[in-house]
Amino acid sequence: MRYRLFGRTGLRVSELFLGTMGFEDARESRRIIDAYADAGGNVLDTASAYGNGEELLGSVLERRDRFVLATKYTLSRDPSDPNAAGNHRKNLGLSLEQSLRRLRTDHVDVLWVHIWDRHTPLEETIRALDDAVCAGKVLYTGISDAPAWVVARANTLAEWRDRTSFAGLQVPYNLLRRDAERELLPMAEAFGMTVAAWAPLAAGVLAAGPRSRRVDPETLSERERTARAAVRAVADELGAAPAQVALAWTRSRSPVVHPLVGAADVAQLTESIGGLDLVLPADAIRRLEAAVPFELGFPGDFIAECESSTFVFGDHATSVTGR
Length: 323
Fold this sequence. Notes:
- By secondary structure, this protein is of the alpha/beta class.
- It has helices spanning 26-38, 53-60, 89-103, 122-134, 148-160, 184-190, 222-238, 242-253, 266-274, 282-291, 300-307, 310-313, and strands spanning 3-5, 12-14, 17-19, 43-45, 68-73, 108-113, 138-144, 166-172, 194-198, 257-261.
- The strands form 2 sheets. An 8-stranded parallel β-barrel has the order 3-4-5-6-7-8-9-10, surrounded by 5 helices. It has a two-stranded antiparallel sheet with strand order 1-2.
- Strand 4, helix 2 (53-60) and strand 5 form a beta-alpha-beta unit.
- The longest helix is centred in the C-terminal third of the chain and has 17 residues, at 222-238.
- The two termini are 30 Å apart.
């Protein structure tokens, strides 16, 4: 397992993150965590809203300091209480305290904002998160499921006001769902953020074997069937599992992307880890992407066209390179 820095921090995180949302059995969960750690993995991701997920993780987690333990807040703790959800200071404080008790720890290494709350000012969220960092209950922060402009504004405010900036971003990202390429991935790269790509297997659609048992072929769209077939064809050519090809594709798109994988058992985790050395040939990437076309849309496509236009950038439009 190789490591990268978490955003613009000194924290080392493994190239594959382990999501614990699906943990149900304590014994199997402990086996999965041990196998992940033995392979060099060190990021465990949970959330306040994952049922009894935090409680279970806290009960089986050994060698606590060996892991980068991450959880999330925002989602409702009590549907009848209007202040038991959202990104405001009250919910942050109460949700964090609840998570710490469940996880049996005095701090989390990363606290993610679970989703953008349009009713809470960003200034309040940034200040409350920074206070949690200053109190030692949180070491680093990240944000999930938010528009690029929201993340960019939040980090700009944090920099101006000497607050803790978001070091990580969580977004859904896979061959079938590439929306993040329009604004979110470029924004994350510009701010030096780490990207945790959730649903990298498209909820099992791009996998095979046990991981796709819950996928009913009859319910798949034509696009999903085409993508599934393309992934399998490349996997057969390379002697790899379809899941490994799907994960390798997400990693091929940007150096800041870390697939966030789940595992129902050690076998599934082993399969994911076994594909970390898989590098897809350029032709394989082209065929995968041709199978399920994606349009960047405006302004990305328009700007790309203009970059080589002498009308826009003069006679040296194609002779200028980056730094």
